[in-house]
Amino acid sequence: MSERKAIFITGGGSGIGRAIALKFADEGWFVGLGDIDQAGMDETLSLIENGFTFAHKFDVRDREAWDHALDGFATASGGRIDVLANNAGIPLGGSLMENSTAEIERCLDINLKGVLFGAQAAYPHLKKTAPGSCLLNTASAAGIYGTPGASVYSATKFGVRAITESLDGEWAEDGINVRSIMPSFIDTPLLDHTPNAQSNEGIRQRVKDAGLEITPVVEVAQAAWDAVHGDKLHTTVGKTAKRIAFGSRWMPGRVRKQTRQSARPLGQ
């Protein structure tokens, strides 16, 4: 087995996945990328200078494809996977009644099934490099308190939080760490999407109109590094996420009131 540690990152073609890839590459790790966006992965790879890279185009909703991706990466990395960053995910905003059946199913499948399938596929690899190996799931501030105008997305991120907590218990005896990062609004291309098919205003503008801060993506990469190497189960990233976490724990009534008074929920 190679001595160089290895991380495989889904959604590695842009945004948070790319930032995590660059951070771990800078620290000397072998970096593997998974994404449906081949061009995006190629661009990420072009930014990594150490040459220890791998990319595999696949859909996280396909359980069998997960095995092909991780087996291929383990072979390329010298027989080891120390971290799986379960990062692939999509946004979905707007009121529940605006969301189509297809949009709801796609969000649930990618954000929840993709994480569960990734955990299943990664387990034997992480067990081999334990103790100290890690399953790192990308959750969200929307997984701390439900976000008006994003009920489906919030449900998936609460699910990712639950998966993290469940597997933290299940895998402890195997020496596999399970962690999550919970970012708020991060400066990535996802903010430039529209919340749903019926909307024509980008998420970024809605965030600005609401007076919320947009956190630099490099802060998420550092949080991912700290989560992998620390003992905190959930790591919040950005001022909004930290405020929500504090408020939901210590002032739940106030958070509920503020949530209900939201004049125009994000995504509408």
Automatic annotation (TrEMBL):
Keywords: Oxidoreductase. It comes from Qipengyuania nanhaisediminis. Belongs to the short-chain dehydrogenases/reductases (SDR) family. The keyword Oxidoreductase applies. GO terms for molecular function: oxidoreductase activity. It comes from the Bacteria. The keyword Oxidoreductase applies. Pfam families: adh_short. InterPro entries: NAD(P)-bd_dom_sf (IPR036291), SDR_fam (IPR002347). SUPFAM superfamilies: NAD(P)-binding Rossmann-fold domains (SSF51735). This is NADP-dependent 3-hydroxy acid dehydrogenase YdfG.
